[in-house]
Amino acid sequence: MNENDPAHEITDRALCQECDVILYRIPMTPDDPATAALLDAVAWTPTGLVACVAQQHDTGEVLMVAWMDRAAIRETLATGRVCYFSRSRNRLWRKGETSGQVQRLVELRLDCDGDALLALVDQAGAACHTGRRSCFYRAARDGVLAVIAEPIADPAELYSRSEAAP
Amino acid sequence: MNENDPAHEITDRALCQECDVILYRIPMTPDDPATAALLDAVAWTPTGLVACVAQQHDTGEVLMVAWMDRAAIRETLATGRVCYFSRSRNRLWRKGETSGQVQRLVELRLDCDGDALLALVDQAGAACHTGRRSCFYRAARDGVLAVIAEPIADPAELYSRSEAAP
Question: Which of A14, A137, B50, B127 qualifies as a FRET site for B84, CA 20 to 30 Å off?
């Protein structure tokens, strides 16, 4: 990819479809009003991220907390499949891209001061890279930091390639 | 307060009971095993904080996201009343200290990679400084960023003195 190519002009963080590295480029289409309003209302961290809590829409289980950037929010709202920004891999992370444990978006909400999102989702299988339904499987309970949930899937089978924790 | 006073030796962030400013001092008592294990397992931000999601323990409502430091976690576990660290006020923030809308702790959980807490709480009244039950009252819905919940209390009455958003 040639970054001097006008087709890759830098305006927003996104993945290049050709070379799979992060770059900044012109969004292909204008944002719809809901997406534009949401992006405008977010109080971004200095590195352009916002925390996102994922909650199973019907049972209320809090599944995980991860981060989104502008591109992740755009993709999530456009596709209905939840996409985060992985800080450890420094790229977009389509939840379930390796494990198959995808999150379908039901609704994306924003808090009062704009620094946290709540994604109501329909989680297939395990949200956690340990194979547990929820990442919050440790609790201060009975005087110890107790493990309060067991895996529902084998991580070795879920991640036969390379998807890991954010 | 005299910071050279050995009684105020710096070991941990906490509020001085005498002068109500943040300082670092020796904890009065050793941590119990659950608190020590939890503090040891947290992956702190560079400024010594960790994100905390508060969820109503019985209904599953996600109420808010705020931050805790070591002192906030210690106080929360020791007292059973949720205490955060307010980044805007740069001090401990005992939820409800002005508004009366306190959070009683039911259980404190930690996620797989240690960078997020989930506090199961019993929230009195409104968690949000706008007087709404939950801070997540805006949603990308019907093509706009919609307000999906109304206040259940008057913020002017809740905050007749000075408690505000974190």
Answer: A137
